[in-house]
Amino acid sequence: MPLLPLKDAARAIGIPYNSVWHHYKLGRIPTQLAGRYHLIDPDVLQTVLLAYGYRKRQQ
Q1: Under DSSP, is residue 21 helix (H, G, I), strand (E, B) or coil?
Q2: What pTM, to 2 d.p., does this model score?
Q3: Helix 17-25 vs helix 6-13: angle between axes, to the nearest 10 degrees?
């Protein structure tokens, strides 16, 4: 997949943006800076979050 802004990548894999932002601020998510956007591949984002034990809440 192409690189997407952090918010769009979170939406693409179905994870709330505030959870992604929390892990990003802790320095756990590597991104590429392009202008004012932090770009990441959604597959990489999902892999990183799974590595840190993130699980979606059951509804």
Answers
A1: helix
A2: 0.83
A3: 130
Beta bridge partners of 33: 38
Parallel, antiparallel, or unpaired for β 32-34 and 37-40? Answer: antiparallel
In sequence order, which residues have a C-beta less than 8 Å from that of residue 11 and are 6 or more positions away? 17
Residue given tokens 């840190």 in the structure block: 52
DSSP classification of residue 59: -
Residue pLDDT tens, the chain, 59 long: 789 999 999 999 999 999 999 999 999 999 999 999 999 999 999 999 999 888 776 65
For residue 58, the one-letter residue type is Q
User: Any residues with CB less than 8 A from the CB of 56 and at least 6 apart, and which?
Assistant: 14, 15
